[in-house]
Design a protein that fits this description.
This protein has 232 residues and is mainly alpha-helical. It is 52% helix and 7% strand. It has seven helices and three strands. Strands 1-2-3 form a three-stranded antiparallel beta sheet. Helix 1 packs antiparallel against helix 4 and helix 2 packs antiparallel against helix 3. The longest helix is centred in the last third of the chain and has 29 residues. The chain is globular, with a radius of gyration of 24 Å. The chain starts with a strand and ends with a helix.
């Protein structure tokens, strides 16, 4: 058993069984006494052992976020400095790329960095460790989704990593798009980019919906004006 480890147990009220996992604070991983499949952990598609390690590290930070108070002394303050480096790089990537894979906008990252700088160089307490763990969990989740450190990593938000499904009723699209002045094709292209690899970035979705609402508002005003002119 690792030196810095703990056991989490969840009792099942309906059956005389329980679920469990061990936490290794040295390696920042969860582990079990028997073999566990990625399907049981609902990890999705994995491509290597290091890819699995990223997923297990994310689960570790989720555990720390939920139970931060009693393990402050077991997590070194260096995790704050490391997180500041990662967040700073992410902010720069967002500022210099239109298709960054970093999960937070540059503005939100700047706000989070201000909080992290306030705790830099200080002893970790449970409150600080809670939000630091939440941020590390988000970073590891995005790293897992973008195949960070793998042979074929996703370096661009629009880079397609998985096979795309065939469009049903292609003939309908071919007829409707020219008939409606290419508007359906334009929106379909934007939605295709928004849902690349089935990952939707909140800020990108909000920008798209804002543009759609503005377009719909303009169309309603224009149609209303035409109807008013046509009335006797």
């Amino acid at each position: 058993m690792p030196r810095l480890s703990e056991l989490f147990i969840e009792l099942d009220e309906s059956e005389p069984t329980c679920s469990y996992y061990f936490v290794n604070h040295d390696t920042r991983r969860l582990f079990w006494l028997e073999q566990i499949s990625t399907e049981m952990l609902d990890m999705g598609m994995v491509v290597s052992n290091s890819h699995i390690d990223t997923a297990l590290e994310r689960l570790y930070w989720v555990h720390v976020e939920f139970f931060p108070m009693h393990i402050c002394a077991q997590v070194p303050p260096q995790v704050v400095d490391d997180l500041i480096g990662v967040m700073s790089h992410g902010a720069a990537d967002r500022l210099t790329s239109r298709s960054s894979t970093f999960p937070y906008t540059a503005e939100k990252t700047s706000q989070l960095l201000q909080l992290l700088f306030l705790r830099r160089g200080q002893t970790l307490d449970g409150h600080t460790l809670c939000f630091v763990a939440r941020l590390w969990g988000a970073i590891d989740n995005q790293r897992f989704m973008t195949y960070y450190g793998q042979e074929h990593a996703q370096l661009d938000r629009l880079q397609i990593m998985t096979p795309q499904e065939e469009v049903d009723h292609q003939w309908v699209k071919n007829i409707a798009n020219p008939a409606l002045w290419g508007i359906p094709g334009h929106h379909l292209s934007e939605l295709h980019d928004l849902f690349a690899n089935e990952q939707v970035f909140v800020d990108q979705w909000q920008t798209f919906m804002g543009a759609c609402i503005s377009e719909w508002h303009t169309a309603v005003v224009w149609v209303g004006a035409v109807v008013d002119r046509c009335e006797p």
